[in-house]
Amino acid sequence: MACFVVTTVAAIGVGAAKYVLRHNEKKKDELVVKDQFINSKKLGILEMELWGGAILLAGEHALHGEITYKWPFLTAVSEGPEATVEMLQEMGTIGVGMLAILVAVWFGGLFIYKFLRNRKKKQAAQEQ
């Protein structure tokens, strides 16, 4: 019903964190920023992943008629307190679960990138 709200709020938060991190990176040396495990570029990847998931989920909910174009936009809110409780439970279970999976995939990508980068550096050092 409204599980996309969780990823939308997370995308807004990650966007704010990316903005602050980018502002702080401008003060540092470029090589130091590149070697950080999490930098503004990597947070940008997570932000795009979250926005993409939120937009796809919102579209899916709109196709099923769970989102309307008049106030209140979520049909569960207009159907009464029982439907609102069900919507909040879905946000707490499915929405948070999807957010956790998206962040886990992002972290997995970071670890794979770091592993391959370190392996390449070691191979280059051994060849010299």
In short:
This protein is mainly α.
What is the chain-wise order of helices and strands? HHHHH
Structural class: mainly alpha
Low-confidence stretches: none
Task: Compute the number of strand runs.
Answer: 0
Summarize model confidence as the mean pLDDT: 87
Can you tell me the overall shape? elongated
Attribute tags:
about 130 residues; mainly alpha; elongated
What is the element layout, followed by pairings?
Blueprint: H1 4-25, H2 30-35, H3 40-63, H4 75-78, H5 81-127
Helix pairs in contact: 1-3, 1-5, 3-5
Could you explain how this protein is built, in words?
The protein is mostly helical and 128 residues long. Helix content is 80%, strand content 0%. The protein has helices at residues 4-25, 30-35, 40-63, 75-78, 81-127. The relative contact order is 0.15. The mean pLDDT is 87.
